[in-house]
Each structure stands twice: as C-alpha cells, then as structure tokens.
# Entry
Amino acid sequence: MEGQLYLKQNNIKATKARIYIMGLLLNSDSAITADYIYESSVDKKLFIDLSTVYRTLELLEEKSLVDKFDLGGGMNSFIIKKLGHKHTVECSKCHRELEIDCPMNQIDELIRNKTGFTPIEHELNIKGICEQCKKAGFL
Amino acid sequence: MEGQLYLKQNNIKATKARIYIMGLLLNSDSAITADYIYESSVDKKLFIDLSTVYRTLELLEEKSLVDKFDLGGGMNSFIIKKLGHKHTVECSKCHRELEIDCPMNQIDELIRNKTGFTPIEHELNIKGICEQCKKAGFL
DNA sequence: CTGCGTGCAAATGCTTTGCATATGT
DNA sequence: ACATATGCAAAGCATTTGCACGCAG
# Structure
C-alpha cells in the first residue's frame, strides 16, 4: 500500500502497475533497471509489460520522483530521488562560472556496478575552458 | 599519409578505410562518433560502411590506440588515446584500497557534450564502503 | 462514462554479426 | 596466393511508439 499513497500524494493515478513499480523503487536502496522491474513482476505473476515499465519510469522521472542513471551501453537504472546538489566549474581563462548537475551520481553508479564498491562521499574539482574562450582560440 | 604510417607502426594492415579513419582521429582534438566518421566518408565520396567503421574502431580500441567514451543512450565516441591514469578509492571501514580507471574521461565527455565546457584538469576524492564490508553489514 | 493507462506488436537507433566478395602484402 | 578486410543485409538489444481495449476516478 505504501506505493499507492506515494503516488496519490504526487497526483499520479494509482494503477496496479504503478503501485507495484513504486513499491519496488521505494524498497530498493540501490538503483534498479527496467528489466529488473519487469522480471520481478513476472516472478510475482503480475506480468507488467516492459513498455508500461518504461512509461511509468518516464513519468516518475518527469515528476522528479526518481533519478535515472545511464549505465552505458544504452542501459539505464532508476532510483527514488534523493536530494541532489550542483557543482560549479570555472573557466580557467575568463573565470566565468558554470553550474552543472553533480555528475558523481553517474560515477557512483558505474563504480558500484563494476567493483561492488559503494561510494558515499566525494569531493570534485574540475578546471577547463568554456565554450566561448575555446572558440576564441585559447585551446 | 599520416594515418598510414600510424597504422603500420602498430602492425595494422593499412587499408583505404582504416587510413581514412585513422586520419580523422589523428586530426580531431575532440572525440568523434562512428556516425560522424561514416558521414564524413560519404562527404568525401569514400562511402566506408558503418560496419567497417565500427570494426575499425573496435580494433583500434583493442590495440589501445583509441579511447571509447559512452555518451549515454547507447552512443559512443572515440578519441586518440592520451596517457591515462588511475584513481584509488579507500574503504572507510577496512581501509583497503581499490584501484579504478579514472572515471572522469566519461564525465569530461558528458560535460563537453552538454555544456560546451572543455574540462582540462581534475581532482577527485571518493569515500565509500567496499563490497565485503557492505556485506558484513556496515551499511 | 470518459480519459488515461495498458498490453501487444511493430518500429526505432545504435551497434554487431554472418557471409560472400574484394584487397593488401 | 591467402589471409584478412570489406560491403551488404539481417540480427540484436534496450528503449519507444501506435493503436485498440480496459480500468480508475
């Protein structure tokens, strides 16, 4: 029932498929794939179609309820959204600042996937050249 | 002719397709996609088949002459290999160290792709829990 | 009852592969 | 000449889309 509430709180029509998927997401501490959700639904004799899984995940992402990670090779995984943060990159030439979404979520997921290591904290510092300065011929 | 030499130096049979692809890679300061190579070959009336492009890139990657970046959505780009480096992550519990390939190449490419900002240097610090400690119930 | 959600099947986009032919050394 | 590279066409894989039916509100 947990998933049901969560959906209603976010003005999403609570259907069998969505309730099940939401439940899975709420009870996963790590990111899961569309196929994992599908297979899981098959195990439970629910047979939620893959297209429905994808459409639900897309909806939840639009509503900012889940984060989508690119696993490479065209695969993605999804996790209930946690508080995100931003990073700032500063151009080494013009010193203008550019804000980017923290790219570490991706990295964390890649590392977890390849090595089993679970990243918890990070510190990241990027230096580079912004588009304009690059066009201006600095690099 | 430049590509030709580069290939021979690396014991790769120098064919028309490979020479052209190698030339493109050598003259690109940023990573390029298989499709870009293909289209470029069409423009030059060479019509190198996409499968040939992919097979060549695969070969060059195996020979460690190019780096392959995952652009997300199942797409990749390729760039002549630069000197790579490793990072070390240390488990916050058992303090064992784990060496990983620098994950920033991917990030750099993503940032370049999305914002036009060209990353040059980085500093990266990751803390986390290794697989064994996690299984042991610390997290 | 009415529109939105669903399953099914087919389409997509990038990449990979099988096979017969063409090409480099 | 002979192994290997190539083009072509078809397959593969995760994901997306069109459409007719079904269910939630």
Residues 13, 15-18, 47-49, 51-52, 55-56, 73-74 of chain B lie near DNA strand D (CB under 10 Å from a C1').
